[in-house]
Amino acid sequence: MGAHYAFGLRDIAGERYTPAGPGVFVSGPFHVDGMPEIIRLDADITGRVDCYLICRPAGIPVTTDRVVQQLVPGTAFSFPDVWTAGTLTSADFYLKWVFCSDDAVLTRFLLQVTKGA
Fold this sequence. Notes:
The protein is mainly beta. 3% of the residues lie in helices and 53% in strands. The chain contains one helix and seven strands. It has one helix at residues 79-82; strands at 23-33, 36-46, 49-57, 66-71, 75-78, 90-99, 105-115. A four-stranded antiparallel sheet has the order 1-6-3-4, with no helix packed on it. The protein has a three-stranded antiparallel sheet with strand order 5-2-7. A hairpin with an 8-residue loop joins strand 3 and strand 4 (66-71). The longest helix has 4 residues, at 79-82. The termini are far apart.
């Protein structure tokens, strides 16, 4: 279960007073028109947190969300090199954050997407 809100949130700070334990947080959608070229993730993380880039191409049923790949903060990759399902006209991207340790905290993240001409 979850919720989707139509307004954007920025500069959110969190404080943790008691251990929350492992869990999953999904952020997005981040809408992109056209075919992404380079994708980069930067994040400030404490503990063990895994991040996966999820793509929901336009015009395809919701049940066909695809995990593009696991993202490592501080690295970039060529999207066309890992995307094997053809050219995108537009898509919604999500970040699936998996908090694997009891001390896991995601302080902030920045997802950067560049597109070719």
